[in-house]
Design a protein that fits this description.
By secondary structure, the protein is of the alpha/beta class. It has two domains: about 5-115, no CATH class; about 115-304, Rossmann fold (3-Layer(aba) Sandwich). The chain is about 50% helix and about 20% strand. The chain has helices at about 10-20, 25-35, 35-55, 55-80, 90-95, 100-115, 115-130, 150-155, 170-185, 220-230, 260-265, 285-290, and strands spanning about 140-145, 160-165, 190-195, 205-210, 230-245, 270-280, 295-304. Strands 3-2-1-4-5-7-6 form a seven-stranded mixed beta sheet, with helices on both faces. Helix 1 packs across helix 4 (about 55-80), helix 4 (about 55-80) crosses helix 6 (about 100-115) and helix 8 (about 150-155) crosses helix 9 (about 170-185). Bound molecules: S-adenosylmethionine. S-adenosylmethionine binds near residues 96, 150, 167 and 214.
Length: about 300
């Protein structure tokens, strides 16, 4: 990694992680090797926000917790070709309702928006390509905002007129609320404890929906996407971000190719525009396919 190309806030997080975990240096060097200037600039903006949202120590602890958890799940996945858990009820109890685990997880995910190139590029897609394509005055819904950073990016867009978030985890709802309060959003927003797999009655449809890193947590993501299609206004757009071959304690639906992610969205009644397939540190897409490495798929979906 060329430190001269890594801007101030990004470098601060990288240095804190490496001080605690020097052996992670090679991975981070690969993660920062091929970033464009635009990605560096986007990541620096995100890093500045992330450092306001949590203490460096908590970010480092959460990031290591998440990397260790993924490593542990990866061992089983390589042996069995499957994710460990298959039932939503199981992971709801183990993860979403466990405040300590969720807090570490959300800190880890926040750090990963800076440190994992596939997460950084997916978030860059959301901010630079998805949100600007929404119509003026759009009503926005996010499903599973978690730490809240995507929710904040939508909230800070002056063209967004209404903002709603649904999450099943009380810890995530608190984290999203704190995110907006800490980063200073001066507008009303609604956060509701809702299970996206339950029937979704809404009083007014949405012009914009984001569902990021959630489909792989559901037993039947196609049914959930279909019900989101039902609350999308005519001309509305949806952002989907879903990883393939990405074992984690709370991932229950396995997608094995980027095309399977696109097909999942299409089979819920959408047309997919402008998909991004973002491989992880040290891989190009061809090698990631061959090795069944995790790839983040970010896309825009419109009703077919
Ligand atoms: C991995 S986090 C994703 C956070 C953020 N959207 C991101 O892209 O990093 C998954 C979030 O989805 C929420 N979630 C999982 N299943 C859900 C469901 N059935 N209904 C609503 N939220 C759910 C979890 O509580 C958690 O906050």
């Amino acid at each position: 990694m060329d430190p001269a190309r890594v801007p101030y806030h990004t470098r601060k997080l990288v240095e804190a992680v490496l001080a605690d975990w020097p052996a992670h240096g090679d991975t981070l060097a690969k993660s920062f090797a091929d970033r464009s200037d635009a990605t560096h600039a986007h990541v620096e903006r995100t890093a500045e926000l992330v450092l306001k949202l949590a203490d460096l120590d908590d970010l480092v602890r959460g990031y290591r917790w998440m990397c260790d958890m993924v490593f542990e799940e990866e061992l089983g996945f390589r042996r069995t070709g499957r994710y460990r858990h298959a039932s939503f009820a199981e992971v709801d109890r183990l993860v979403y309702q466990d405040r300590a685990a969720m807090t570490a997880y959300m800190h880890g995910l926040l750090a990963s928006e800076v440190l994992w190139v596939q997460h950084a590029r997916s978030l860059e897609y959301f901010v630079e390509r998805f949100l600007p394509g929404n119509r003026e005055g759009y009503r926005h819904l996010e499903v599973g905002p978690g730490h809240g950073i995507l929710f904040w990016y939508a909230a800070s867009d002056p063209r967004c007129s209404a903002l709603v978030g649904y999450d099943i985890s009380p810890t995530s709802l608190d984290a999203t609320r704190r995110c907006l309060e800490t980063l200073g959003v001066d507008r009303p927003f609604a956060l509701e404890a809702r299970d996206i797999t339950a029937p979704l009655g809404v009083s007014e449809p949405f012009d914009s929906i984001a569902i990021s890193e959630v489909c792989e947590h559901l037993e039947d993501p196609v049914a959930a996407l279909r019900s989101l299609r039902g609350i999308l206004a005519p001309g509305g757009r949806m952002y989907v971000n879903v990883p393939i071959n990405a074992p984690a304690i709370d991932h229950i639906t396995l997608l094995e190719t980027p095309e399977a992610a696109v097909e999942m969205v299409e089979s819920a009644g959408f047309r997919v525009l402008d998909p991004l397939f973002a491989p992880p540190a040290g891989y190009d897409l061809a090698r990631a396919r061959k090795r069944k490495a995790s790839v983040s798929v970010a896309l825009t979906a419109v009703p077919a």
